Amino acid sequence: MNKKVLLIEDDAQMSAFIVEYLNAYNFTCQAFDNPKDAIVELRQNPSYDIVILDLMLPFMDGFDVFRKLKSISNIPIIISSARGDIGNKILGFELGADDYLAKPYEPRELVLRLEYILKKQHSSKITLGDFVINKDNREVLVDNYPVELTKIEFEIFIFLVENCHKNVSREQILHATSLDLNTKNRTIDMHISNIRHKIGDDSKNPHYIKSVWGIGYKFVG
What we know:
Elements: E1 3-8, H1 12-24, E2 27-32, H2 35-44, E3 50-53, H3 62-72, E4 77-81, H4 86-95, E5 99-102, H5 107-122, E6 125-128, E7 131-134, E8 139-142, E9 145-147, H6 151-162, E10 168-169, H7 170-176, H8 185-198, E11 209-212, E12 216-219
């Protein structure tokens, strides 16, 4: 499947060239010259894999765009800018940029850096049924909609997912997470109930997390 790239670049010639070049390397690239439109796009369509962000943009400063994108999703971002001085690079990396390419650069280098970042991210990414999970970022998407889980809820959810179709006991959940070892069963059940609610699972007839009588739970995807 082609990886989806969100390109924010106001130079029309540069933008068209990048889109055409990336398409040749099996990327699907959607370009925006107005950063406000790109922000709306990411909010409405969180299925993008990575962002290429210019800094010199109309309407908004590139670093403000960066912050806004990160407030929506912890998506990887490569900064692509003519502002190649060390001060801008330091600020970019301090904000959490995954890479910083100073213009001009060879387009093949952009492809290589995209592939490297996405390969590294893929190792911590789980796609299962309706779910896309990033273990490094503690990010969960259900049908492309983000789900906010607490640290403990995420640990429990990951343990269930990684043991998909297996019965797991409350004791196993307890030892696989950072829960206190004196945690009562009803506390684990409460966390499961919260997870079900957040992922849209019907507690009376759950589709994803099944109760297993006398044992515990089973994630069925």
